[in-house]
Amino acid sequence: MYNLEVRDLHNFLVGDCGVVVHNLCAKGKVKEFLEHADFAENLAKVQNPKVKKGLARLKELKDANHPNYQKFLGDFVDDIPVEHFDAWEGLIDFPLLRKKAKALEYVDELKVPKLGSSTTTDYRKTFKEVAFPEIADDIYQVHHAMPQKIYNNYPDIMTKSELHSLQNLRGIPKNNHWIHQTITNNWAQFYLDFPNFTRQQALDFAKQIDDNFGHLFIPPIR
Q1: Which residues fall within 8 angstroms of residue 194, CB to CB, at 6 or more apart?
Q2: Domains in the chain: boundaries
Q3: Is the distance from CB of 189 to CB of 147 less than 8 angstroms?
Q4: Which of 165, 94, 168 lies closest to 134 in space, CA to CA?
Q5: Could you tell me which of 67, 63, 80 has the C-alpha nearest to residue 26?
Q6: pTM to 2 decimals?
Q7: At 217, phi and psi to the nearest 5?
Q8: Structure confidence by residue, pLDDT tens digits, 70-126
């Protein structure tokens, strides 16, 4: 599928047989694609896996007469950076964040936990005021994916700058505040099981935590 913008003349010939077509708006073009009789065959030809997933999801919503189909369609065409489709879909309950590039990048980056760098130790401000002021009132606590205990007791594992980086921060929502203690308990067991753990082992365990609880964070990262 190609997206063409034609200046002045909007009718043109396509293919060896010279089919006359008229350029549509992007939304109309996607609708046309979804409604085509050869949808499955055409979808198989789409090269970008994220776009392919998005089109397949829209097709499901359309066929199910989902009440939000038109909204999803409009958002897909107008707002979604296709490279962040997974993050965009994961933020379905956070419409303000779905249109925020930084939120999409944050969620998409954390498919695998990573550590960034921060020039401040005020991690609450970094998360609630700078990164996600739209949901600050819903956040119970700002949690470190790689806990502060690691930095305090195992200083060779990570730096203070990495500890407080946005990539290492997670939002614990007020309506699921219990998960913070559960995560803390999981880490306590990790310290017992791996008293001489490496940086990679800690990152791997952080990924397990994200995989298990990421859908409950705010914004959700799974």
Answers
A1: 201
A2: 1-78, 94-222
A3: no
A4: 94
A5: 80
A6: 0.65
A7: -70, 170
A8: 877 777 766 555 556 666 666 767 777 766 777 878 888 888 878 999 999 999 999
